[in-house]
Design a protein that fits this description.
The chain is mostly beta strands and 325 residues long. It has 2 helices and 27 strands. The protein has helices spanning 69-72, 279-290; strands spanning 11-13, 25-28, 31-34, 42-47, 58-68, 76-82, 85-93, 96-100, 105-108, 113-117, 122-128, 134-143, 154-158, 163-165, 168-174, 176-177, 180-181, 191-197, 202-206, 212-219, 222-224, 227-229, 234-237, 243-248, 254-261, 269-271, 274-276.
Length: 325
């Protein structure tokens, strides 16, 4: 379950033919990653990669489904640890049972956000429920800034109301957009929202010009400021924009997830399920997990063993940040 792959994904950037990325827009292609092992469900990962480590504090984006659970087996991720981050779970269909070491036992359902703060240390499990026939959604991580990365673990749940747009609809699960603000607490300014677009519609969203933004397309024929963004791709828009113009050129509805935040100023070390600043910090967390240290607690109610940590690489883990402009 290492979250760092050795093969870089395709990146399209710079102006060119019709539909090619406009200035300040990059298209990050997804790569297929097995979740929990070669016979487990496969996810499409767009963050992190060599071309871009973060969008704001967003440091990880997995997009999965629609998977027929009868064929894929669904999701069954045994208890595993996190440090230095927040996890954000958002579903389009299906249902996932969440258990964690601070005692939370909750369901992740479509249109409802679960945010878990790892901080100094937490562990949790994720299992699709028996009633789930199709599993489809995104799993996102947020890097905590240095002054908060050892904060106490916690869990939050929120059901955002749909916000009508001229040509679509939004559900704002983090930050503010289209006149709605999520009450879910974060440690840096962030935007996270599901946006649906009617056939042939163009929706122009007012956004913070200090943010960089990402548009992860789930379905439809979507253009971001005229740039084609194919399903499963993540479009990156540099800071400076006051609006995002989203067009659905298809005859059916389109759906996407909009992400944003001010550029994250720190370098991070990201390995397996840990976000830190140094190799030694990551190695210490791995050792603590292997030794069943108190910092990660215990997940009650999962019918199986914990996930073992993979071996650390022979080389020293190096900090990463976005390429300098």
């Amino acid at each position: 379950m290492s979250n760092m792959e050795t093969h870089p994904a395709e990146v399209r950037c710079g102006a060119g033919e019709e539909g090619a990325p406009a200035a300040g827009v990059e298209i990050l292609a997804a790569r297929d990653v097995p979740l929990g092992g070669p016979r487990a469900m496969t996810v499409r990962r767009t963050l992190p990669q060599r071309a871009r480590t973060l969008i704001g504090a967003w440091c990880f984006a997995d997009h999965y489904g629609p998977d027929e659970v009868s064929r894929s087996g669904g999701m069954d991720v045994a208890p595993h640890p996190h440090i230095g981050l927040q996890t954000v779970s958002w579903l389009f269909s299906g249902e996932i049972e969440h258990r964690d070491s601070v005692g939370s036992h909750a369901l992740v359902r479509p249109g409802e956000v679960n945010l878990m703060t790892g901080g100094h240390g937490i562990s949790h499990s994720e299992v699709s429920t028996p009633d789930t026939t199709v599993l489809h959604g995104v799993q996102l991580w947020v890097a905590l800034p240095s002054e908060h990365r050892d904060t106490a673990p916690a869990f939050q749940h929120h059901v955002p109301a749909p916000v009508a747009l001229d040509g679509g609809e939004a559900r704002v699960f983090l930050g503010s957009l289209a006149g709605d603000t999520s009450p879910v607490g974060t440690f840096t300014p962030l935007l996270g929202a599901e946006v649906t677009l009617a056939p042939g519609a163009t929706v122009t969203l007012d956004v913070d010009p200090g943010f960089e933004h990402g548009v992860l397309v789930d379905s439809g024929d979507v253009r971001l400021d005229g740039t084609v963004v194919r399903p499963a791709e993540l479009a990156y828009a540099a800071p400076g924009r006051r609006t995002l113009a989203l067009t659905n050129a298809a005859s059916g509805a389109a759906r996407l997830v909009a992400l944003g935040g001010p550029p994250f100023p720190e370098e991070i070390v990201m390995w397996w399920n840990f976000v830190g600043r140094t190799h030694d910090e990551i190695a210490a967390a791995r050792a603590d997990w292997g030794n069943e240290a108190e910092r990660f607690g215990r997940v009650e109610g999962y019918p199986g063993d914990r996930l073992p940590a993979p071996a650390l690489p022979n080389a020293t883990l190096s900090p990463r940040r976005n390429p300098r402009p």
